[in-house]
Write a structure and sequence with these properties.
This protein is an alpha+beta fold and about 170 residues long. It contains six helices and six strands.
Length: about 170
């Protein structure tokens, strides 16, 4: 298998899978090193494929969707409720980011689209291994949310507002 065929196979494996596929799994299936997979993914992204890297593996965004950024503020204890609210209405929380006065924008990919993924995220935060980014900016943070249409994003915005999670834009 040459490099072009390998990259086509990577796209096929990522697209047809029901769950994210790790670089290690791809390297085993294609009999190449993990480093080769990382390079192939970079080339695929550069050629226009919207491949997302998550902590569970690679996924491809092949859905037409609409995106909106929400500025929010809440406590650590409200994080789970906020994320569930978004995914229950039909959104995918692509990322979380904060604006730090010294470091600028600090961003983490999330790609959370189900209650199960919300729980995995929360479990990671409460384990004490890491803390939420919002803690370095007094609870203020942003989420990029993807949905199937503007109506869904409007419903998410309304629900966030009703819960008091939307932060005022200055």
């Amino acid at each position: 298998m040459n490099a072009v065929e390998r990259r086509e196979r990577i796209v096929e494996l990522i697209t047809k899978g029901d769950a994210p596929i790790s670089g290690s799994t791809l390297s085993k299936k294609l009999n190449v090193s993990r480093q080769v997979i990382v390079q192939d993914i970079a080339l695929l992204k550069a050629s226009g494929y919207e491949i997302l890297s998550t902590n569970r593996g690679y996924i491809i965004n092949n859905k037409s969707s609409h995106v909106r950024v929400f500025k929010v503020r809440h406590t650590n204890e409200q994080t789970e409720e906020e994320l569930k609210l978004i995914v229950d209405i039909g959104g995918t929380v692509e990322d979380v980011f904060v604006w730090h006065r010294v470091y600028g924008r600090i961003k983490a990919e999330l790609n959370i689209s189900s209650r199960r993924q919300v729980q995995q995220c929360i479990d990671g935060l409460v384990s004490g291994k890491s803390t939420a980014l919002m803690n370095i900016t007094s609870g203020y943070h942003y989420h990029t949310v993807r949905a199937d249409g503007e109506e869904t994003l409007d419903l998410i915005e309304k629900a966030l507002s009703e819960k008091g999670y939307l932060a005022p834009e200055i």
